[in-house]
Amino acid sequence: MRLSAAGLGLGLVGAGVFYARGGPCLTMVNTGLRVEHLWPQWAALLLAALGFGLVAWALPRRWMRAIAVAVAIVTAALAGGRFAYRLDAEAAGLSDRGLLGSTRLPWKDVRRVDAGPALILVWGPGDAQVRVNTAGFTSDQRATLDRIISRRVREAQTPEPSTQSQ
């Protein structure tokens, strides 16, 4: 019985990891861009967490079970993070939602943008920042996001043309 559970658990882990891989989905909307993970990705991570739980139940030693349970909990937290994650680059501003909360930054409040190879930091007043992890993005997705952020920041920083008549 325990051997069957371990085999099933390892199968679930393998299937979960296989289907959870890949970057987020970028969707162009009328006012900008939305970045989120599709349901098969976070559901696959939940499946992998269940698999680690079955493996933990099947393991003979207490310390082995503790490690497998810890990995199952971390995997379930990753699934929750993918479920909750959403980045919106709209006309009003940039908003980032995750497992631990959300941050909204109007474009007019953006002080600077730091772009690294796998991370974009958009700084606002004080220590306010939106961190965009772009490690799973394709080069086209990253370029699209870079263009939208730079265009929105440039538009917000450009003063309105004067409407005075002479």
Characteristic terms for this protein:
166 residues, single chain, 2 domains, alpha+beta
In brief:
The chain is of the alpha+beta class and 166 residues long.
Task: Explain what the structure shows.
There is one protein chain. This protein has two domains: about 1-85, no CATH class; about 90-155. The chain is built from four helices and eight strands. The chain has helices at about 1-20, 40-60, 60-85, 140-155; strands spanning about 25-30, 30-35, 85-90, 95-100, 100-105, 110-115, 120-125, 130-135. The strands form two sheets. The protein has a five-stranded antiparallel beta sheet. Strands 6-7-8 form a three-stranded antiparallel beta sheet, with no helix packed on it. Helix 1 (about 1-20) packs antiparallel against helix 2 (about 40-60) and helix 2 (about 40-60) packs antiparallel against helix 3. The longest helix is centred in the middle third of the chain and has 23 residues, at about 60-85. The mean pLDDT is about 90.
Question: What's the order of the H and E elements?
Answer: HEEHHEEEEEEH
**What's the main sheet like?**
5 strands, antiparallel
Structural classification: alpha+beta
Give the overall pLDDT as a whole number.
88
Extract low-pLDDT stretches: none
* Spatial strand order of the main sheet: 1-2-3-4-5
For the secondary structure, the number of strands is 8
Number of domains: 2
Task: Determine the strand fraction and express it as a percent band.
Answer: 15-25%
Shape: elongated
Number of DSSP helical runs:
4
